[in-house]
Amino acid sequence: MTTTTRTTPPATTSETPAYRPSAGKRAQVWLANHFAMITAVLVLLYLFLPVAYTFVFSFNDHGKTNIVWQGFTWEHWQDPCGVQGVCESLVTSLEVGVISTVVATVLGTLMALAMVRYKFRGRSASNVLIFVPMATPEIVMGAALLTIFVQGFANIGINLGFGTIVFSHIMFCLSFVVVTVSARIQSLDPRIEEAAQDLYASPMQTFWKVTFPLILPGIAGAAMLAFSLSFDDFIITNFVSGNESTFPKFVYVASRRGIPAEANVIGFSMFVIAVLLVVGAQVVSSLRASKYKS
Amino acid sequence: MSALAHVAGDPGLEPAAAAPEVKRRSWTAYLLMLPGVLWLAIFFLLPLVQLASVSLQSRYPGFPGYYYRDLNFSNYASALTDYAPHFARSFLYAGLATFLAFAVAYPLAYAMAFKAGRWRNLMMICVIAPFFTSFILRTFAWSQILADEGWVAGVLNFLHLLPNGHIINTPIAVVAGLTYNFLPFMVLPIYASLERADPRVIEAGGDLYANGFTTFRTVTLPISMPGVLAGTLLTFIPAAGDFVNMELLGPQRGKMIGNVINDQFLAVPGGYPVAAALSFTLMAAILVLVFLYIRRFGTEELV
Amino acid sequence: MAGFREAQGDLRLEGVTKTFGDFTAVDGIDLEVPRGSFFALLGPSGCGKTTTLRMVAGLEQPTAGRVMIGDTDLTGSRPYERPVNTVFQSYALFPHLTIRDNVAFGPKRRKAADASERADEALQLVQMASFAGRKPAQLSGGQQQRVALARALVNHPEVLLLDEPLGALDLKLRREMQVELKRIQTEVGLTFIHVTHDQEEAMTMADTVAVMNRGHIEQLGAPEELYDLPRTRFVANFLGQANTGVGTIKDVEGDHLVVNVLGTPVKILRSRSQVHEGDVLFGVRPEKVTVSRTRPEGVGNDVRGVVRDVSFLGVATTYLVDMPSGATWSCYEQNLDVEPLDLRPGDEVWLTWNPGHAFGVPTEDEGSLG
């Protein structure tokens, strides 16, 4: 860590330009200058290692258990739905993810607008109510939801299943949406909205013509976060899903016998799709930026 | 609150520092808040109240799965006495994982903020991207990587670094899994707070102190403290309640509290009251730890 | 558009007050701005000038009092219902819209069919037509300023409000824009209300200047009038430099008051003093004071002093002179003499001025901010 804060080479090289340090010395200097970057690349490799395993084992010609390498096959990529339940659970996860994301993003954006733009009685209590779910372990939330669903809501006809998963996902996504969108609204100059009002825009017009387009990137970011939180959630889902299976739950249940390679195919494909979407968005925005400059 | 907002890492527009306050008092605010607050009340507060009530229920003797309303604090007593080791392990493993994640995440966040240049966005994508493969799949991949016949165990065994010859199904594997799974939660807030810092401040620190470590300790680290604080909380809290890593990577005996709660709820008939008491104790313990931690290291930026 | 209030005529504020909690930002202002004039609200930061402006715009509602244009009472109406537009301090251009769409925003809200054409015309007026397709982030500060002006002007408001519009520009650009703003105002003939803390800016551009301090108007008038005959100590000090001294009125000699300043008798024209007995703060502007080596005859007022500092400015020379009262006066002499005075620090000099140039204001220091 000691060398990470250096941005200039050690003095010895600059003071005596005629002196040519030994190869070992030069390697040492190079290492000192690039320590942080080298560490960073190693850490990134570490982050990708299990993803690589997932990818490799999607080609494993496994028998009952997909734990050790047994041979190469395209089979799982040709028919990812070949194992019973895997695609059904994926569809459930996507449905849950989309519904939860839409509802949580709408409700969370409304709350963020109120929290940033208005002063009202109960504002600080609301702040706590939004913060605490993020500081509560998922297992506690899952347990609490299970007890209320089983002992309370079952009496009014709500049973564990698709609905309870969606209700729960909306709940834990909501706080993250509020925080993300609030940050964006806070960075907005309130005079821009005043200018709109000054130019004859009613409050509704001000919101739709000015405020909304300006906070849209924040809302989009919040929606992405909500979707990824919902899509990847296992712990809460495990408590509230009853007989319904989501993709993470399918994988977890399967893991006792060895996850079928079809799940690897789907997991890795989701990774590739997401990365392509993010990279695509980056490229589009940088292209647009360079068009403005010319 | 803003410390957690670092996770989102949205730099947004220029902040309007000198802008006049435009806060208004209006029924509109209540209308905007109403649906979200109702949702949190019904699906967060109400369940917690129910959980509290369950944690005080008693069993009908001889009828597993049936309870009556009571003020039975013995659930808490047995939660604390029977499962104290599980609590201790959970906090120990989560603490270790948080520390390791910090040690691994900091250089990465530092490099992204000050050294990456035009690679910055790409590195950002690389940090987030693994999230999109299901975390259970990745944890399962670790069980393959750390398996006895795998290369990691092979190398470590060759160096005689493993006392009993295994990594998989040991606490080491659990801590490794926890460290891995919550690493992005550590990287992103630290990166967000470093990115806002002026690199010249840190260079100036390098000029004033000959020693690089002193610069780090006296300049860089304090600047990134809000991010470190948010990152450690975002790592520690889910790690302490996790049971998946223990289930997939850990030993048969010596489970964490998350496993106990999960089993008591989903596998043990009549386990609800004790499991609820355990959940509440876990939540209370974490809130107390978080509170003390913020008091000790916190800045105003946190809430 | 529903609720929009057409109004024509002079802008009038009647007893307008604004309080924020315990703090009174604007304290019972009465003001009348004739239609088509260029009016400046001048004062230090925190004097209430921006709050006054925001109340005219409708962005704040007065705690008490009325805002009128002609016979129409605008009090209580929303910003979007008023025939008033603002050029904001930070311009507040819409970052997601092109320059043309920024300018067309107002006309579109009022359902003008030719919004785009009007936007282009307005952009031509501020010489920004060639930038119509760009986004605000691609413009410099000065260019953004012009766009903000066009965006307000395009609506032909009854009153145009400018909130420190030149504050973010560098000096050279600011001079250019001062001339430009004045040209545009003359061309379009609208009422301009310009808020600024820069006295020079206010004096160059405005027909009428209101000097504000601590929530009320200290004095209102043409720039020459304010400079020549300030009525309060704050105005005397805030607008330009003034050499001042506190004295007691001893006597009346015809049209003149005789003021005793630490033993030295000084005359002020009676009509130029706001106080006619007791203590008075008398003052005289630096360029009205003549410096000489010998005591001149018959000018009216003369005081002996010692030169402390001499700065040669080319067209003029400024002398700092220590007075017997302990004050230091500054004197601004145009370099017209064939034989220069050639004064050095330490030289004894006589300072003289015409009593018709001095002024007297109350001594109590209401506006210590100046």
UniProtKB/TrEMBL annotation, chain A:
Residues 90-283 form the ABC transmembrane type-1 domain. The keyword Signal does not apply. It is found in: Cell membrane. Its main location: membrane. InterPro entries: Bact_Polyamine_Transport, MetI-like, MetI-like_sf. It is a multi-pass membrane protein. Pfam families: BPD_transp_1. The chain crosses the membrane at residues 29-49, 96-116, 128-150, 156-181, 210-231, 265-284. It comes from the Bacteria. CDD domains: TM_PBP2. Keywords: Cell membrane, Membrane, Transmembrane, Transmembrane helix, Transport. Belongs to the binding-protein-dependent transport system permease family. CysTW subfamily. PANTHER family: PUTRESCINE TRANSPORT SYSTEM PERMEASE PROTEIN POTI (PTHR43848:SF2). This is ABC transporter permease.
From TrEMBL, chain B:
Its main location: membrane. Residues 87-293 form the ABC transmembrane type-1 domain. It is a multi-pass membrane protein. The keyword DNA repair does not apply. InterPro entries: MetI-like, MetI-like_sf. The keyword Transport applies. It is found in: Cell membrane. It comes from the Bacteria. The chain crosses the membrane at residues 29-49, 91-110, 122-147, 167-192, 219-241, 272-294. Keywords: Cell membrane, Membrane, Transmembrane, Transmembrane helix, Transport. This is ABC transporter permease.
Automatic annotation (TrEMBL), chain C:
It comes from the Bacteria. This is Spermidine/putrescine import ATP-binding protein PotA. Part of the ABC transporter complex PotABCD involved in spermidine/putrescine import. Responsible for energy coupling to the transport system. Keywords: ATP-binding, Cell membrane, Membrane, Nucleotide-binding, Translocase, Transport. The complex is composed of two ATP-binding proteins (PotA), two transmembrane proteins (PotB and PotC) and a solute-binding protein (PotD). Belongs to the ABC transporter superfamily. Spermidine/putrescine importer (TC 3.A.1.11.1) family. It is an enzyme of class 7 (translocase). The lineage of its organism: Bacteria, Bacillati, Actinomycetota, Actinomycetes, Propionibacteriales. InterPro entries: AAA+_ATPase (IPR003593), ABC_SmlMolc_Importer (IPR050093), ABC_transporter-like_ATP-bd (IPR003439), ABC_transporter-like_CS (IPR017871), Mo/tungstate-bd_C_term_dom (IPR008995), P-loop_NTPase (IPR027417), PotA-like (IPR005893), Transp-assoc_OB_typ2 (IPR013611). It catalyses: ATP + H2O + polyamine-[polyamine-binding protein]Side 1 = ADP + phosphate + polyamineSide 2 + [polyamine-binding protein]Side 1.
